Amino acid sequence: MAAHYDVLIVGGGIAGLSLASALAGNCTVALVEAEQELAYHTSSRSARQLIPSYGPAVVQELTVRTLELIAARDAELPEPVLSPRSFMLIGTEDAVAAEGSGHMRSITPAEALELCPALVPGTFSAAGLDTGSFGCNAPLLLADHRQRALAAGVDIITGARVHSAQRVGSGWQVGAGMEALEAGVLVNAAGAWADEVAVISGVEKLGLQPYRRTAAIAAVERPLPEHSPMVAAADNTFYFRRDGGDVLISPSETVPSGPEDAKPRPGDIERLVARLNQVTTLGITEVRKAWTGLRTEAADGVPVAGFDAEAPGFYWLAGQGGYGFQTSAAMAELAAAQILAGQSTTEPAATGPASRTAQALAATRWSVRR
């Protein structure tokens, strides 16, 4: 016989785990993950930086709220998830102005060089600084969500790829691996595979597009000072930050991909190292390890959180587009409230800040599909 739950979450990355912990204790929940371990794909390949000045306006709002929620939780943990680490943009005046926001203030190139002495003078003409940015201990955050969910009775099932799902009566019947499950609400938090889960479920896909983003840990001749900011090029060609005595580096590429276990492509890191050795004095000597994650986006670049327009009880929690960790707690808070309120195909209320956020994220918005 199938096990029955109020809510079944598909996907064990930061989106699915944060929602599981938000719902835990309020209803019966199961989470299924296709891989043998949780957070195997993009969630284990994060830059580990939460940046209030990064992304569209609604993403910035979600980031501020996520920082509030994580900071409140940090007060109860023996080790904090968050650690202060500023974020700095460098480039031309036009590029920095275009990428900056109200959370970022303009600073002079001289001030930027003081904050990050590794930068080569004359390689940029403008800079912006976000001092409200934080480093994120991603493994600790993921582990905390998992522990909170399990402690409140959530069933977490790994190695269970969804192979069938159909709407039956007032709920969903789902086959995942060897498991048969039933749920009133089916949450699609499958990341790069979210459209595939929709098709399996007989739901019209959103046209979500995964994009590659590669990063590496590199050894350097001259390590960055302990409190150095994360530095990014305003033209989205690289970023780097301190990682102990090493540096984390990325070419910030946005290359379309299918859903896959992405790997670095030959030449990407080598070209990045050559570029960084021109614009910094880091002296990168060795690449210790490299990886590639997938940032999945809707057509308008805004995450999706809401019930499907046509399929009752099918909830989208997808398309985070590289903002997954920095929006996770706020999106889980919103999604849990909507699911527990029993909303289905109805539109979000038309007034109030929370309602405006829900409308901006809704799966029913006109701009979500390609």
Model description:
The protein has helices at 14-23, 57-74, 93-99, 109-115, 138-151, 194-200, 268-279, 324-340, 353-361, and strands at residues 3-10, 29-32, 49-50, 82-84, 87-91, 105-107, 126-130, 134-136, 155-157, 162-168, 171-176, 179-188, 209-220, 230-233, 239-243, 246-250, 255-256, 284-297, 304-307, 314-318. It is of the alpha+beta class. A hairpin with a 6-residue loop joins strand 19 and strand 20. The model is unreliable at 344-351 (pLDDT under 50).
Instruction: Compute the number of helices.
Output: 9
Strand content: 25-35%
Shape: elongated
Distance, first to last CA: 39 Å
Number-wise, the strands total 20
User: What string gives the helices and strands in order?
Assistant: EHEEHEEHEHEEHEEEEHEEEEEHEEEHH
> Can you give the helix content as a percent range?
25-40%
Mean pLDDT: 95
Parts with pLDDT < 50 across at least 5 consecutive residues: 344-351
Main β sheet profile: 9 strands, mixed
Radius of gyration: 21 Å
Structural class: alpha+beta
